[in-house]
Amino acid sequence: MKTTLDLPDRILDEAKRRAARERRTLKEIFGEALRRYLHPPIRPRAPFQLRLLVKETGPQSGVDVADRDDLYDRMEDRR
Known about the structure:
The chain is mainly α and 79 residues long.
């Protein structure tokens, strides 16, 4: 497909030099540049790491493990 682009002289000059250096056409240079812009490579992300907050405690005196409400209150620091 043919189209007309109004490019800054500096960019066109750079593209022409690169095309000559790589023995390619301007069509190839601009086509590759647009493909890379429109479809950038997908970079793999670092795997997600969940950091757990561990609270080390020992047995607590006065805890009735049969009292569910008391246990929930203690776990949520409401006591």
